[in-house]
Amino acid sequence: MDRVSPRPVLVFDFGSQYVQLLARRAREAGTLAMIVRHDLPVERVRELNPIGLILSGGPASVYDPSAPRCDPRIFDLGVPILGVCYGMQLLCDALGTPGGVRSAETREYGRTHLHLLESAANDPLFTGVPPESIVWMSHGDQVRELPNGFRALARSGDCPLAAVVKTDRPIYGLQFHPEVVHTEYGQTILSNFLKRVCHAPGDWNMGTFLERAVERIRCQVGEEGRVVCGLSGGVDSAVAAALLARAIGDRVVCVLVDNGLLRAGERDAVVAAFRDHFAVELRVIDAADRFLERLQGVTDPQEKRIRIGHLFIELFRNEAAAIPHARFLAQGTLYPDVIESGGGADGPAATIKHHHNVGGLPAELGLELIEPLRDLFKDEVRKLGIELGLPAWFVGRHPFPGPGLAVRCLGPVEPRRLEILRRADAIFLEELRAAGLYDRTGQAFAVLLPVKSVGVMGDGRTYDETIVLRSVDTDDFMTADWSRLPHDLLAKVSTRIVNEVPGVNRVAYDITSKPPGTIEWE
Ligand SMILES: Nc1ncnc2c1ncn2[C@@H]1O[C@H](COP(=O)(O)OP(=O)(O)OP(=O)(O)O)[C@@H](O)[C@H]1O
Ligand SMILES: O=c1[nH]c(=O)c2[nH+]cn([C@@H]3O[C@H](COP(=O)(O)O)[C@@H](O)[C@H]3O)c2[nH]1
Ligand SMILES: NC(=O)CC[C@H](N)C(=O)O
Ligand SMILES: [Mg+2]
């Protein structure tokens, strides 16, 4: 992100899955955010002249001797500090909490009720936040006792210290995550921190992103360079392609790989949509057989992604080899793909899954990557797509992962199983659209389990496959809640799948949020 506002808020990265969300919420509040290493020395912090500091969450436990820590001198700078989850545990530990930080008796993941204490009534951090609200938690450790010189501001059912503040300095700790969209007043709290506690002017805006991104692409590609752009028909690659077209015109060649793992009718739909909305060349590579061959007998989800990622790159490389000056590969990589793949090489973030386009890439790429959307989230990319002139129905499409049905076909990926999944998925989406609910859900799809169960159909015994329906509500795909779909719709989809898809005798509906689940099953 570019420096427009002179004084940034620094987000110290302790390996949270949500570190960029903190930065993004700051952007929404009109403040430039810079993500920095968790152990940035205080001298360097001073040079950056921050308006405030945010300490992110993270997978470690502060009582673990190898846990990441910050330079303790940052607490004496006099700059406002907000510690979130691990960040709160760390600052309480560093400033001295008598009972220490320990593993909690009850861990909290997902939706929790927050109760503000009377002491929060006049605190600027909670201006505009009602006494009771919903927050999202994701922790197993807890600060046991109020640190010396702190005041408690809020509690939850299982966590007596859900928010604390130092009485003589603007140092706050929150055990819940204000940065996730499911925390009802999260943006209010972060915006209060920036505007009311740090006194940030709030004049940064996203409009400049487009111009700067175009400039950066021109600069990277040069006068002659050509770019191969992996185009999936999804929103991210379409927006990346449109951005490239704006920056370098017909020096971009889009490549759609038909990997045999696409949904029913997808390939034709993408080709048609592309023809109508883009002025650049699109090539389609038929590679279904090669992907299926590579996936034969593979059941481990990470291994599936890695094999798929590698084959994608081989195909892009072959394509680029035939085009003069094509040294670049563009992908619609977003921040969630990056952070879930483990963030950076030596960062403290845990690997949740190797997204095929990041963690699944081979060591030797042979092409220079262009990923203009790497710092952004899905809904920001959608806004950018609209600015670039893509139609609203197109940018509103549900995401579909690059590894496609392979990561929804749990167990071995075989043509027979893919066909079952494809048909069940098509029925679910058709009914969701018919009920007018497609645009009100974030992502919906079917999953085929490697589990058979007993049923009775036509008075006879069956022993057949299980389909799970998954539908989630989310804007940024970092956290998600399961969609409360009408029972009548679920009943209709279930009946149609069992009646119309041979080999399936049972349909289940997934009622797990993220966290603790992920959106995909693999
Ligand atoms: N079948 C495909 N052919 C070519 N490139 C692909 C294909 N599938 C994925 N990619 C590349 O991998 C990137 C990441 O895939 P991902 O599914 O996250 O994004 P997307 O498909 O562009 O958008 P969406 O999230 O809406 O599905 C894409 O932006 C694209 O560059
Ligand atoms: O291109 C992709 N390659 C991948 O390997 C991959 N894995 C997950 N996804 C998509 O990312 C979003 C978050 O998914 P999860 O909650 O399952 O991690 C959801 O929208 C998922 O569909 C992927 N996209
Ligand atoms: N999300 C977090 O920051 C978690 C912090 C710590 N690892 C815990 O489990 O409590
Ligand atoms: Mg996709």
Automatic annotation (TrEMBL):
Enzyme Commission code: 6.3.5.2
Domain GMPS ATP-PPase residues, every copy: 204-397
Positions annotated as active site in the UniProt record: C85 (nucleophile), H177, E179
Binding site for ATP: S232, G233, G234, V235, D236, S237, A238
Pathway(s): Purine metabolism; GMP biosynthesis; GMP from XMP (L-Gln route): step 1/1
Gene Ontology molecular function terms on file: ATP binding; GMP synthase activity
Database matches in InterPro entries: Class_I_gatase-like, GATASE, GMP_synth_C, GMP_synth_GATase, GMP_synthase, GMPS_ATP_PPase_dom, NAD/GMP_synthase, Rossmann-like_a/b/a_fold
GO cellular component: cytosol
UniProt keyword annotation of Protein transport present: no
Catalysis performed (reactions): XMP + L-glutamine + ATP + H2O = GMP + L-glutamate + AMP + diphosphate + 2 H(+)
Keywords noted in UniProt: ATP-binding, Glutamine amidotransferase, GMP biosynthesis, Ligase, Nucleotide-binding, Purine biosynthesis
Enzyme class: ligase
PROSITE patterns: GATASE_TYPE_1, GMPS_ATP_PPASE
Keyword ATP-binding found: yes
Subunit structure: Homodimer.
Function: Catalyzes the synthesis of GMP from XMP.
Protein name: GMP synthase [glutamine-hydrolyzing]
Organismal lineage: Bacteria, Pseudomonadati, Planctomycetota, Planctomycetia, Isosphaerales
Gene that this sequence comes from: guaA
